Automatic annotation (TrEMBL):
Subcellular location: Secreted, Cell wall; Membrane
Similarity comment: Belongs to the expansin family. Expansin A subfamily.
Annotated SMART domains: DPBB_1 (SM00837)
Keywords linked to the UniProt accession: Cell wall, Cell wall biogenesis/degradation, Membrane, Secreted, Signal
Domain Expansin-like CBD intervals: 196-275
Full protein name: Expansin
UniProt topology in membrane: Peripheral membrane protein
């Protein structure tokens, strides 16, 4: 399968199809702040089997990108970076499914069907959305432009593709359904920006896995609505330096969680802070 048939957004490589408007250089040095649960980027994420289906089975196709190391699939259009904790159990979604980044963090269950390339008696896989598979207008939707609208399509990391099918197939039909995300621990908030402009990437979100709305509150402010910068990154143009920060999040189902006192008064960009709460 040619690289052109598997184009996607990846901050580590140039893609002529997609212009990435905002590029954030992630210089993360994790330190421990007394009294706050700073995330250790060296920790590993162990997927749980307790995912709960939240939608009926539907039909689509799946391809893969990158190699067996999954190094090319780290990061992506959701803005998680290479320390997301989602491992290689990830996927890029076609434009329609990606929904301008609103699908970031959501989870799907996939099984290979109706193809000689499918592995027999192999259970389904569970994956997290971390990237965008952009359209390829130079090829038709049924001959290389797999992610062109209005197709539903999954561009998986190669290691997770190889769990359901022979990779030499290139593309296989799949059944998929949305499932709740089984996460361990609280929601994580990765800080970038500066004291006057806070950019936060939200990770390890349970429940639906997505974040539709987000607010921040300093010890000297009311709740401030944050706008989506891109993917799972939200921003606030406010002077928040020198304040303890709390966050309120809402998912697409309208469920709300409040994470109080996530970051201390002396919070710094380049750090990831972990809350003690999450969606059910």
């Amino acid at each position: 399968m040619s690289r052109q048939t598997m184009m996607r957004v990846n901050f580590g490589s140039y893609n002529p199809v997609v212009v990435v408007v905002v590029v954030v250089v992630l210089l993360a040095t994790m330190t421990v702040v007394d009294g706050y649960d700073n995330y250790n980027g060296q920790s590993s994420y162990t997927p749980s089997s307790s995912y709960t289906p939240s939608s009926p089975w539907q039909s689509a196709h799946a391809t893969f990108y990158g190699d067996e190391t999954a190094s090319e699939t780290m990061g992506g259009a959701c803005g998680y970076g290479s320390d997301s904790g989602y491992g290689f159990e990830t996927t890029a979604l076609s434009t329609v499914m990606f929904n301008n980044g609103k699908a970031c963090g959501s989870c799907y269950e996939i099984m290979c069907v109706d193809s000689k390339w499918c592995y027999n008696n192999v259970p389904s896989i569970k994956i997290t959305v971390t990237n965008l598979c952009p359209p390829n207008w130079e090829q038709s939707a049924d001959a290389g432009g797999w992610c062109n609208p209005p197709r539903s399509h999954f561009d998986l990391s190669k290691p997770i593709f190889m769990k359901i099918a022979d990779w030499t197939a290139g593309i296989v039909p799949v059944n998929y359904r949305r499932v709740s995300c089984a996460r361990t621990g609280g929601i994580r908030f990765k800080f970038e920006g500066n004291p006057d402009w806070l950019l936060v990437s939200v990770l390890n979100v349970g429940g639906n896995g997505d974040v539709s709305e987000m607010w921040v509150k300093g010890t000297e402010t009311d709740w401030i609505s944050m706008s989506r910068n891109w993917g799972a990154s939200f921003q606030a143009f406010s002077k928040l330096g020198g304040q303890c920060l709390s966050f309120k999040l809402q998912n697409e189902d309208g469920n709300v969680v409040v994470a109080y006192n996530v970051a201390p008064v002396d919070w710094c960009t380049g750090q990831t802070y972990q809350s003690d709460t999450n969606f059910n």
